[in-house]
Amino acid sequence: EAQVTQNPRYLITVTGKKLTVTCSQNMNHEYMSWYRQDPGLGLRQIYYSMNVEVTDKGDVPEGYKVSRKEKRNFPLILESPSPNQTSLYFCASSAYRDRGPYYGYTFGSGTRLTVV
Amino acid sequence: DQQVKQNSPSLSVQEGRISILNCDYTNSMFDYFLWYKKYPAEGPTFLISISSIKDKNEDGRFTVFLNKSAKHLSLHIVPSQPGDSAVYFCAASGGSNYKLTFGKGTLLTVNP
Description:
The complex is a heterodimer. By secondary structure, chain A is mostly beta strands. Chain A contains no helices and 11 strands. By secondary structure, chain B is mainly beta. In chain B, the strands form 2 sheets. In chain B, strands 2, 4, 5, 9, 10 and 11 form a 6-stranded mixed β-sheet that branches. A 5-stranded antiparallel β-sheet of chain B has the order 1-3-8-7-6, with no helix packed on it.
C-alpha cells in the first residue's frame, strides 16, 4: 500500500529535550515536505526537500531541522523544543508534477506534539 | 500575506442538498489547484484538482470550478452525504519548488 508513515503519532516532551519525528514514504517520491497545523492558521510549510541532499526552508522553519540522506526518509528534528512548537505535524510526499498525473501530496497520519 | 483564502470557517448543509465551498487566491503564478479532505486524527487526503487551463473538473459527486479572472475556485458536492462531514482545504501550486500553499480550511457538516 502506497503510504507516508510518521512516528510517533503522539508525543509529550519537556522544553529543551531534543526530539526527532520520523517520516518514511514507499512511493519513490522525489519531493517531501513537513507541515504544521494550528487552529486558525491552517497548514503551514516548515521545510521541504526536492530530492536527496536537497532541502530548503518553508514558511515557518525557525526551531526545526531536517535531513534527506535517503530518498524515502525525511526526519524532522527539534533540537530544543519550546511550548510554541506544540502542534499537529504532517509529513507529505509527491512526485514531480512533470512526471505524469499530479495528485498533489500524500500525507502521513500526523504527529501530535505537546511541549511542556 | 495569505495567498490562499477560505473565508468561511464552517458550513452546514442538509443531507441530499448541495454543498459549495469557496476559495480565493492572490498569486497569479498559481497554475494548479487542489482540494483536500481531512477527518479528525487523519492526514489530509486528495479529493479533486484542476489545472489553470480548465474551468471545470468533475469526479462523481464532486465538481471544482475555476474562475481565473476572479482568482476564485469552488468545490461543489452534490448530493451531500453525512460521510462528507470533514474539514476541506483548498491548495494551490505554481512555480518550481512544488510547494502547495493551503487555505485555513472549511469545516463542512452534513446533517442527516
